[in-house]
Amino acid sequence: MPGDLILGVDFGSSSTIAGTLVGDRIQLVQDAGDCVIPSVVYIPDRGPPEIGRRAIARQLIDPSKVIRSVKRVLGLSGSSELVRHYAASVPYKVELTADRVMYKLRSGDLAPEQIVASILGHVRDLAEARFGGRASKIVMTMSAAAPAGYRDAAVRAAKIAHLEVLDLVAEPIAGALALDLHTQAANRRIIVCDFGGGTFDVSAVEQRGLRFTPIATAGDHYLGGDDLDDAIAEAIAGHVFKTARYDMHKDIVRWNELLLRCESAKRQLSVRPEAPIALREAYRQAGRSHDLNIVLDRPWVDRVWATHFERATGVVIELLRRAGWTASDVDVVGMIGGSSQVPAFAAAIGATLGAHKLVHADNAELAVAQGATLLTARYRSRESSVRILDVA
Q1: Do 353 and 331 reside in the same domain of the chain?
Q2: Dihedral sign, Cα of residue 53, residue 15, residue 376, residue 34
Q3: Whole-prediction pTM value?
Q4: Kindly report the CA angle at 30 between 140 and 57, in degrees rounded to 5?
Q5: Which of 14, 158, 251, 277 could form a disulfide with 163 if both were Cys (CB 3.0 to 4.6 A apart)?
């Protein structure tokens, strides 16, 4: 594809997905054949960082240098309670001051913006290698519940990666494009629920014809699929401690391996009633190492996740309050984000707003990136037949 590329980028807490328009078709950036690129960075003592799946592999060898979920602290000050919680839960040192957050690594100090820039730069390089053009401009999505400083921090991160941010769009609004709601003239009230890896965002949107007006947003910046993984791991660790008096948190490598197993089990449980978890030499009892072999089922994880989904329904109720709507006022509920595929989550939203109103994206994990990519049509120099969201 000749000329400059404009990328639509969904930068998420757990993964980043990006695409560009080739002609009028969405083509996603791929890393070794996978368009879902983990938002994970390995910072070695010497040499360049490793990003994505290569960094995930390092997590099981050298977790103290593998940075995850940087989106959760982007734009926040060190005085934030959320940042303090984050710093206490990661296996590397995070220095907090009143006005900044800094990763303290052997290779040097890095700000969150620099970590994000390395991820965006990796995506840019992959796009240029695949499509043959120069990528210097992006349309980027952001959480509807992002903190006040997030927008400026995201723009700074992109600038470090030599990328110009043409627009920052709320993730649920971008996701509405992937649901094809913008192609159907109607008068209706829509709620878009975006349950991603690190955040849960909801937007109330009013449609009149083909024009969409955002009415209200709400969200939980610390509620996502990663938290569901953590909840399973904590429940398993609690069971092991109760039976063997062994704290699984003290072995960082094993703990990270357990988290990866829990993420895999969560995905399996979205389509199956059961999922096994096996971990060799997971804990010690009476001086001997023991393997962990358990089978999780949906009723068990639903109980473990119950408080998380109570938080999600609380966010939806707050959105209705801000919009001045009742549940009966809502005509359509769009479900996007990879974690929206969890059956218990869909059931919780359906119980609050009406299960018959739920509309699921064909590929919920890709929906926001697809929407952001469609929005790049606004900035192309040549005419396009792509119909984009007309937002008031």
Answers
A1: yes
A2: positive
A3: 0.88
A4: 100
A5: 158
